[in-house]
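Retry 2 of 3 after timeout on previous attempt. Resubmitting structure tokens to design endpoint.
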């Protein structure tokens, strides 16, 4: 795959230490790396450290003059951060298998595409939840996010008992599902 001109411009800007190139790299790629690291036993601080390490490596390669980008920059950044994070996990002994055995499990492009699909679905779900309205939104959040028991939900929402709250939760969930799939099919 041939790298895009935009990617090459960003690399050249990085090699010249241009602030706009550095800011664009962070803006375009940091969130993806943060999501990967948090989903794999890391924290936001770990993500910042790993991304910074990757940017330093990329800067050094870009400055070297003989670096040839053979994929999309996004794929390259993701794979470098992934490798750095797996090494860190191995060093921290939070991960059982050696890094070398994980390299061929899933090609980076497939993993990246799956992560993008998941992020898109979460975004659609967030929009559907915001369009759901009250009290459904609060009821679902109380149950699924805050893990409150049905009896407590019934009391705080004014339902006569836990079974009525459970029925209402089911109705709200069906409405949310309907909103989600309508938005997801339309690509919104």
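Retry 2 succeeded. Sequence:
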């Amino acid at each position: 795959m041939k790298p895009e001109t935009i990617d090459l411009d960003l690399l050249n800007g990085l090699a010249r230490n241009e602030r706009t190139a550095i800011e664009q790299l962070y803006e375009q790629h940091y969130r993806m790396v943060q999501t990967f690291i948090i989903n794999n036993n890391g924290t936001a601080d770990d993500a910042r450290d790993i991304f910074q390490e990757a940017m330093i490596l990329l800067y050094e390669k870009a400055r070297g003059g003989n670096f040839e980008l053979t994929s999309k920059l996004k794929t390259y950044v993701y794979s470098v951060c992934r490798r750095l994070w797996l090494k860190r996990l191995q060093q921290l002994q939070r991960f059982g298998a050696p890094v070398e055995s994980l390299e061929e499990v899933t090609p980076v492009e497939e993993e990246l595409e799956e992560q993008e699909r998941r992020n898109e679905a979460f975004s659609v779900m967030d929009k559907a939840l915001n369009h759901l309205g009250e009290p459904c939104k609060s009821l679902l959040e109380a149950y699924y996010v805050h893990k409150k028991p049905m009896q407590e939900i019934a009391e705080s929402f004014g339902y006569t008992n836990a079974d009525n709250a459970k029925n209402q939760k089911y109705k709200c969930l069906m409405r949310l599902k309907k909103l989600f799939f309508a938005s997801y099919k339309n690509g919104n």
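Attempt log closed. The radius of gyration is 22 Å.
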